[in-house]
Amino acid sequence: MLVTQLQKAQALKLPSQAAMLYRESSVQHFWDTNKSTLVDAWVEWEKKQESSFLLNGSLFDKRLREAVTQAWQDPSKELAVQDLLTEVAPDVYQFQLFNPTKLIELRTYLENAWNVKVPLRPPYGIALNRGGAMLDKRSEGYLAAPSFQAFYQEILDIYMRPISRLLFSEIIGFDSQTFGFSINYKPTTDNSLRPHTDASAVTLNVNLNLPGEEFTGSNMNFFDQSSGQMIPLKFTPGSAMLHRGSVVHSAQPIQSGERTNFVLWLFGDRGQIPLSNTERPTIPACERWTKTQSHTDNYAPF
Ligand SMILES: O=C(O)CCC(=O)C(=O)O
Ligand SMILES: [Fe+2]
Known about the structure:
Blueprint: H1 5-10, H2 17-21, H3 25-47, H4 62-73, H5 79-82, E1 86-89, E2 92-96, H6 103-115, H7 146-167, E3 177-185, E4 193-196, E5 202-207, E6 216-217, E7 220-224, E8 229-233, E9 239-244, E10 249-251, E11 254-256, E12 259-267
Antiparallel strand pairs: 1-2, 2-9, 3-12, 4-10, 5-9, 5-12, 6-11, 7-8, 7-10
The protein binds 2-oxoglutaric acid and fe (ii) ion.
Fe (ii) ion is lined by residues 196, 198, 249.
């Protein structure tokens, strides 16, 4: 009987959580050996999906989408984008990235992807082996479904990079490469994250909770160097926090409910990030709203 790549992928036995957490060599071997089967399986899976779960531009907040579209056409209009971003802690900005009422489409898509039982690699390496999946094609066991990949790339290339350049111009030259993963906190599993910095030039953290999908606890804390205090911030559905990777941050324990987020990084070739004391240069708007020329390398931080 002919076995499809999807069936083959579904029959694979994922290495144990412990083996993944301790990065046993068998784990690397698992992802290396099955790489093309997994990519083929995701293509096959997506072909079978209902077209109603198409991921497209309508997922983005309407005001942001319009302002960003305008800025791509005419960079001198980028102030309309800036007006939608609020500095909530030093070098930390909050804004509405996704339309909360449309998030159900993305979540349903992701739910279907989890349920199909094609192995996905969880994001080990920061602290815990948290629920979630690698999203970037440079990562083993990533969510390789083509329409998801196009959507993921749109978030990074159309929204995240120019907005990051608008707020933190010193990252230009350190923003050619991408990285991403999803995370999920529950009181009973992974529920918090100790203070750390990210190995990124800039990090976009976006909440995917649906309206009414409440949680308590799980504030993000960002360190304010001038006061020496942590500033607590709460995610609402579809809201994003964009911060320099160098800002110390943590996630407080979740008390009830669940929190699901995408965490996306930009950094330079081979993982380079700006020196911590780099000045923020003034640059013309047209240098932000431009496609990067650089090729993608395969460097993945974890
Ligand atoms: O959303 C969060 O809890 C923050 C996650 C985070 O900082 C990280 O994964 O590096
Ligand atoms: Fe982080």
